[in-house]
Amino acid sequence: MSILMQRLPPGLRIIVTKKMQEEEWSLDKLMTIFRQELETRERANLQCLPSSKSSYQRNKPGTAATLFAGLHDTTCSYCQGKHLSAHCKTVTNVVARRDILKRSGRCF
Question: How far apart, in whole angstroms, are the C-alpha atoms of residue 74 and residue 4?
Fold first, then answer.
Protein backbone atom coordinates (compact mmCIF):
# COMPACT_ATOMS: atom_id res chain seq x y z
CA MET A 1 0.00 0.00 0.00
CA SER A 2 2.89 2.37 0.61
CA ILE A 3 3.76 2.35 -3.11
CA LEU A 4 0.19 3.29 -3.96
CA MET A 5 0.15 6.05 -1.34
CA GLN A 6 3.38 7.49 -2.75
CA ARG A 7 1.68 7.82 -6.15
CA LEU A 8 -1.29 9.78 -4.79
CA PRO A 9 -1.39 13.58 -4.90
CA PRO A 10 -0.57 15.12 -1.49
CA GLY A 11 -4.12 16.38 -0.90
CA LEU A 12 -5.65 12.97 -1.52
CA ARG A 13 -2.97 11.30 0.57
CA ILE A 14 -3.94 13.46 3.56
CA ILE A 15 -7.64 12.63 3.11
CA VAL A 16 -6.92 8.90 2.92
CA THR A 17 -4.68 9.05 6.00
CA LYS A 18 -7.40 10.85 8.00
CA LYS A 19 -10.04 8.30 7.07
CA MET A 20 -7.87 5.18 7.48
CA GLN A 21 -7.85 4.81 11.25
CA GLU A 22 -6.80 1.15 11.40
CA GLU A 23 -3.24 -0.11 11.44
CA GLU A 24 -4.08 -2.62 8.70
CA TRP A 25 -5.07 -0.89 5.48
CA SER A 26 -7.14 -2.78 2.96
CA LEU A 27 -7.64 -2.14 -0.72
CA ASP A 28 -11.42 -2.34 -0.29
CA LYS A 29 -11.36 0.42 2.33
CA LEU A 30 -9.08 2.51 0.12
CA MET A 31 -11.42 2.11 -2.88
CA THR A 32 -14.39 3.13 -0.71
CA ILE A 33 -12.55 6.28 0.36
CA PHE A 34 -11.68 7.09 -3.28
CA ARG A 35 -15.32 6.64 -4.34
CA GLN A 36 -16.60 8.84 -1.49
CA GLU A 37 -14.07 11.54 -2.27
CA LEU A 38 -14.90 11.46 -5.98
CA GLU A 39 -18.64 11.74 -5.30
CA THR A 40 -18.03 14.63 -2.90
CA ARG A 41 -15.91 16.50 -5.43
CA GLU A 42 -18.45 15.90 -8.21
CA ARG A 43 -21.26 17.30 -6.04
CA ALA A 44 -19.12 20.32 -5.16
CA ASN A 45 -18.29 20.97 -8.82
CA LEU A 46 -21.95 20.75 -9.86
CA GLN A 47 -22.89 23.40 -7.31
CA CYS A 48 -20.22 25.76 -8.65
CA LEU A 49 -21.23 25.52 -12.32
CA PRO A 50 -23.23 28.39 -13.84
CA SER A 51 -26.90 27.58 -14.23
CA SER A 52 -27.04 27.28 -18.03
CA LYS A 53 -29.50 24.39 -17.85
CA SER A 54 -32.36 26.62 -16.76
CA SER A 55 -32.00 28.92 -19.79
CA TYR A 56 -31.93 25.86 -22.05
CA GLN A 57 -35.14 24.55 -20.54
CA ARG A 58 -36.89 27.91 -20.92
CA ASN A 59 -36.56 27.69 -24.70
CA LYS A 60 -37.82 24.11 -24.77
CA PRO A 61 -41.57 23.39 -24.70
CA GLY A 62 -42.86 21.52 -21.67
CA THR A 63 -43.61 17.81 -21.76
CA ALA A 64 -47.39 18.21 -21.77
CA ALA A 65 -47.17 20.80 -24.53
CA THR A 66 -45.01 18.47 -26.58
CA LEU A 67 -47.45 15.60 -26.14
CA PHE A 68 -50.47 17.63 -27.19
CA ALA A 69 -48.79 19.66 -29.96
CA GLY A 70 -49.45 17.04 -32.63
CA LEU A 71 -53.10 16.38 -31.77
CA HIS A 72 -54.44 18.73 -34.44
CA ASP A 73 -52.54 17.01 -37.25
CA THR A 74 -53.41 13.36 -36.53
CA THR A 75 -52.53 10.65 -39.06
CA CYS A 76 -53.68 7.04 -38.77
CA SER A 77 -50.80 4.58 -38.38
CA TYR A 78 -52.63 1.96 -40.45
CA CYS A 79 -54.15 3.73 -43.48
CA GLN A 80 -52.51 7.19 -43.24
CA GLY A 81 -55.98 8.77 -43.05
CA LYS A 82 -56.76 11.94 -41.07
CA HIS A 83 -58.13 10.22 -37.96
CA LEU A 84 -56.87 8.51 -34.82
CA SER A 85 -55.51 5.00 -35.30
CA ALA A 86 -57.99 3.69 -32.73
CA HIS A 87 -60.86 4.94 -34.93
CA CYS A 88 -59.59 3.39 -38.18
CA LYS A 89 -62.37 1.73 -40.20
CA THR A 90 -60.17 0.97 -43.24
CA VAL A 91 -57.83 -1.58 -41.61
CA THR A 92 -59.86 -3.51 -39.03
CA ASN A 93 -58.07 -6.87 -38.95
CA VAL A 94 -55.78 -7.17 -35.91
CA VAL A 95 -53.18 -9.26 -37.78
CA ALA A 96 -53.09 -6.76 -40.65
CA ARG A 97 -52.66 -3.87 -38.20
CA ARG A 98 -49.78 -5.68 -36.49
CA ASP A 99 -48.07 -6.33 -39.85
CA ILE A 100 -48.39 -2.67 -40.82
CA LEU A 101 -46.86 -1.62 -37.51
CA LYS A 102 -43.99 -4.10 -37.94
CA ARG A 103 -43.24 -2.88 -41.48
CA SER A 104 -43.21 0.75 -40.39
CA GLY A 105 -40.96 -0.03 -37.39
CA ARG A 106 -43.50 1.01 -34.76
CA CYS A 107 -44.25 -0.56 -31.41
CA PHE A 108 -47.27 -2.81 -31.08
Answer: 64
